Amino acid sequence: MIEAADTSPTDFIRERIRADLQSGKIKQVVTRFPPEPNGYLHIGHAKAICLSFGVANEFGGRCNLRMDDTNPAAEDQEYVEAIQADLRWLGFSWDGMYYAADYFPQLYTWATQLVEKGLAYVDDQTAEAISASRGTLTAPGKNSPFRDRTPEENLRLFFEMRDGKFGDGQKVLRAKIDMAHANINLRDPVMYRIRHMHHQRTGAKWCIYPMYDWAHGESDSIEGITHSLCTLEFEHHRPLYDWFCDSLGIYKPQQIEFARLNVEYLLTSKRKLLQLVEGGHVQGWDDPRMPTLRGMRRRGYTKEALRAFCKHIGIARFNSTHEHELLDFHLREHLNKTSQRRMAVLDPLKVVIENWPQGEVELVEAINNPEDATSGSRQVPFAGELWIERDDFMENPPKDFFRMAPGREVRLRYGYFVKCTGIDKDADGNITAVRCTYDPLTKGGNAPDGRKVKATIHWVSAAHALDAEVRLLSHLFTVKDPAEQEGHDFLEFLNPKSLVVVRGKLEPSLQDARGGDRYQFERIGYFTCDSKDSKPSELVFLRTVTLKDAWQKAQKKQGK
Ligand code: ATP
Ligand code: MG
Predict the structure, then answer these.
(1) String of b and e for 446-475 (b: at least 16 CB within 10 Å)?
(2) Is the dihedral angle over the CA atoms 459, 462, 464, 465 positive or is it negative?
(3) Handedness of CA 317, 320, 321, 322 (dihedral sign)
(4) Which of 66, 79, 229, 231 to mutate to test the pocket of ligand 1 (most atoms within 8 A of CB)?
(5) Which listed residue (16, 36, 304, 323) is catalytic?
(6) CA of residue 103 to ligand 1 center, whole Å
């Protein structure tokens, strides 16, 4: 038996697996991740993936990827491929790749066995009548008038269903359990419905399709899954999961439920994400504001950050919503260690150094990443005309503003001390340039006489600056829980400022940036060269996350 490494998390699921291995109930843990290929994976799936693949890895087991492709209406091969690619990106590989649709023949055979045993029947009622006769939490349901058909008749009708004798909705196959059961899921649930529809894997072979509850546990059983990990909303389906396996007398995996992932400002419902895409509210599934793995990757999220976040939040049995700042914290943690620093000015204001030798360009040495000694340094051109951020200058600064202002000396990062001597304005009074003098003795950023300055600001040489498009991304919604606003549609809370496009001035070494490269723009935030829209001739950068770390600050305040 292989024990989990010391660094792996512990939670009620891992405890259970450990106990099952120790007692000899199972020899090897086998899990699965079963997405329905009707959309792209999102951050909620990342939690389920980290759990099912995580425990398999930690305990020396196996984890399958299974396409839960039992519903032909919404599914597509495009999604199948995207799911595989996104899983690989997250750093996981599956032991077996399966399709629930490949189990259709076995499921069908098992269904006929239940019919023969008198445990399933063909019902002619409409979907509306079935749902109306299901009863409520307090009232029992009513038996269908077709419930007492003989197994022979049911078998004949079920064959005819499969053979296409009936139209959509004319008949269903239902499990025969108990219409008065306290758990509504056991009141004769539907197992098959008729859909004359092309299926992306089985084509026109089938016109009856199994329901989730009927297909899922049986697929788990076929694959020898030991622990079938799913989200809490399936807790009340577990008795049905068990009933199907027990009634067939087949191997019964253990279903265990855990809380869904919810994160402030992020939607984790594929249906709603599809609405965003189809309604043109975002530019696609890979829009960098989307909580899809595609979107997040494009925006600059790293798999390490996502996995660290999933590990941090752990596994619980109650639903809760995590702060977005916690996700940002893990993102910054990883980007801080791995991203090279660059200087970029996003709202440029010209600085003219009046005593700089005419036409001279000096190359100053800039450290690539102070967190990573191996990342070395680069040379950045410094000259007599520079760009600085407009908000690093104030003509009439308040007391607590320490950056550039008339008469004040500040440090230009890696360069010199400069002192503001004047301001140029246009006819409307707008500041067009700041005039300065520099102190040649402060080369590298320190004064030999020991005098101090209170601020260090970043800059880009105007003659060498690269122009680039910079997309400032923020939350897609203005409220933390857009889907939970009573009486309102989540689309009412779209943030009109979630994408603000500016033209930036970038230091020239960024000319080599290619799609997917991540940087920290000093004093601003982390940015990624857009893998979709950036070209060497027209660079596009996306703001991954700002530098401000409200979450860590709040934790410190609370003494954590
Ligand atoms: P949706 O309601 O968005 O369609 P789903 O649960 O139907 O989500 P699937 O593709 O069927 O999506 O999910 C595959 C697996 O991922 C399931 O085991 C499901 O429980 C899990 N999963 C989906 N969303 C989340 C989430 N927000 N948190 C944790 N696990 C999730
Ligand atoms: Mg689903």
Answers:
(1) eeeeeeebeebbbbbbbebbbebbbbbbeb
(2) positive
(3) negative
(4) 231
(5) 36
(6) 21
How far apart are the C-alpha atoms of 508 and 525, rounded to whole Å?
A: 18
Q: Which domains does the chain have, with CATH numbers?
A: 12-258 (3.40.50.620), 270-340+468-557 (2.40.240.10), 344-458 (2.40.240.10)
Residues 526-546 have pLDDT tens digits of: 999 999 999 999 999 999 999
DSSP-derived secondary structure for 480-496: S-GGG-TTS-GGGGB-T
Which position has the token pair 């680069």?
378
> Model confidence at 344, in pLDDT bands (50, 70, 90)?
very high
Ligand whose nearest atom lies closest to the CA of 270: 1
pLDDT (tens digit, 9 = 90+) per residue, 18-37? 999 999 999 999 999 999 99
Length of the chain measured in residues = 560
pLDDT tens readout for residues 102-120 = 999 999 999 999 999 999 9
Q: % helix / strand / coil in the chain, to the nearest 5?
A: 30, 25, 45
Cα distances (angstroms) measured from residue 27 to each of 59, 62, 69, 314, 418: 10, 11, 29, 25, 71
Catalytic residue among 16, 201, 260, 419: 260
Angle between helices 550-557 and 324-338 (to 10 degrees): 110
Q: What is the DSSP string of 178-238?
A: -TT-SSGGGSS-EEEEE----BTTTBTS-SEEE-HHHHHHHHHHHTT-SEEEEEGGGGGGH
Phi-psi region of 81 (alpha: psi -120 to 50; beta: other; left: phi over 0): alpha
